[in-house]
Write a structure and sequence with these properties.
177 residues, alpha+beta, 5-stranded antiparallel sheet, 5 helices, 32% helix, 25% strand
């Protein structure tokens, strides 16, 4: 049952959305530079501006939360793509990675899994300089089989926002509870 619930947990943000290190990233032999190439780092990629920035930090968090908690197995990949397009930085990367995992996840469709919820409150975290916000949601997950009759629950997420051209966008989204 735990193995079947991991895709669900990753989709609704209850589990780490990041992947596990690949075998090649944990190799113990040091990487050798190719002959004739200079060592160094690659230049940073330019990130596209987020779609439809929000007019305030609070509305950026509320919009992101609403998209993050309301989905079905039929819409999840598209919802994650939309969230990625509306975010910047870590939040964008996490949603793009989650979308890739969702596309390969047949357990979501078999269980006809969905999540619905409401944003209960959003507010700035004291002492965080105005860019970190706490978001409380109340969510209900359902579906068939093991997803039938799951109890609704409250969730707390810390979100970091960034000023972007035209408004505000979510930069990181970290479910805490």
């Amino acid at each position: 049952m735990l193995a079947a619930s991991v895709p669900f947990l990753a989709a609704c943000g209850l589990a780490n959305r990041g992947g596990t290190p690949s075998a090649s990233s944990t190799a113990s032999t040091p990487a050798q530079a190719n002959p004739g190439e200079r060592e160094g780092s690659t230049p940073p990629q330019r990130q596209a501006a987020p779609l439809a920035p929000a007019p305030s930090p609070q509305s950026a968090v509320e919009r992101f939360a609403d998209g993050y908690i309301n989905w079905s197995y039929q819409t999840l990949a598209a919802d994650e793509q939309h969230l990625a397009a509306s975010a910047v930085g870590e939040a964008r990367a996490s949603e793009l990675q989650a979308r890739q995992q969702t596309e390969r996840d047949s357990a979501l469709a078999r269980g006809r899994v969905f999540n619905t919820g409401t944003v209960v409150t959003v507010g700035p975290v004291k002492g965080a300089g105005g860019n970190v916000w706490a978001c409380v949601t109340r969510e209900q997950t359902g579906g068939e089989g093991e997803y039938t009759a799951l109890a609704a629950a409250y969730h707390v997420t810390l979100a970091t926002v960034a000023r972007v051209p035209g408004g505000w966008s979510v930069r990181s989204w970290r479910p805490e509870l």
